[in-house]
Amino acid sequence: MPALQLTVNGQPFTGDVPRQTSLLHLLRNDLGLNGPKYGCGLGQCGACTVHVDGTAARACVIPAQGVAGRAITTLEGLGRRGHFHPVQQAFEEAQAAQCGYCLNGMVMQAAALLAREPQADEARIRSELSGNLCRCGTHVEILRAVSLAAA
Ligand code: FES
Predict the structure, then answer these.
(1) Residue from 29, 42, 133 whose mutation best tests the ligand 1 pocket (most atoms within 8 A of CB)
(2) I want to staple 45 with a disulfide (CB 3.0 to 4.6 A). Which of 28, 87, 117, 133 is the partner?
(3) CATH number of the domain that 74 lies in?
(4) Per-residue pLDDT of the chain (151 residues; tens, 9 = 90+)
(5) pLDDT value at position 33?
(6) Where is the 2Fe-2S ferredoxin-type domain (predicted)?
(7) Is there an atom of ligand 1 within 6 Å of 40 CB?
(8) Phi and psi for 21 in degrees, rounded to 5?
């Protein structure tokens, strides 16, 4: 199998990656990017969300080989303290976290939405995030944060 080539947070990556390796495994275990989280491993909770060419996608169910040549962005590539993405800034301002495990997925899903629809209303935000689970029940604060970023 030829070496996998893709871009992660603007940096080129080339490496031998087994066919069964998920994108999430590559990012976390091989590249040390722990923004995306392992939740269900089944594409159902959203904790592992990354952007693939700007579109939100669940890294736990995507084979790394399946995104050859694509541009991957993780939470680390979206923004960092001191240079936060507006969605990250809004989450901090709204204190929209309890345990924080779902936040990667919430932020990445919301950032992809607002890139397409910068002024998405609450109904649209609610619909977009409906597949992202928060076991703490912090949805009200999360919706407020994303609405702040959309304003
Ligand atoms: Fe990927 Fe739950 S860990 S969707």
Answers:
(1) 42
(2) 133
(3) 3.10.20.30
(4) 789 999 999 999 999 999 999 999 999 999 999 999 999 999 999 999 999 999 999 999 999 999 999 999 999 999 999 999 999 999 999 999 999 999 999 999 999 999 999 999 999 999 999 999 999 999 999 999 999 999 7
(5) 98
(6) 2-78
(7) yes
(8) -75, 130
Asked whether residue 70 falls in the same domain as residue 90, the answer is no
- Looking at the structure of the chain, the number of domains it has is 2
> Are residues 74 and 9 part of one domain?
yes
Cα–Cα distances (Å) from 85 to 18, 59, 60, 80, 89, in that order, read 33, 21, 24, 8, 6
The enclosing H or E element of 71 equals strand 71-73
Tokens of 62: 């995507």
Ligand 1 proximity of 135 Cβ (cutoff 6 Å)? no
Nearest CA to ligand 1 atom 4: 43
Asked which of 23, 56, 78 is the last residue of a domain, the reply is 78
Q: Is the CB of 27 under 6 A from ligand 1?
A: no
Ligand 1 neighbourhood includes 36 CB (under 6 angstroms): no
ipTM of this complex > 0.95? Answer: yes
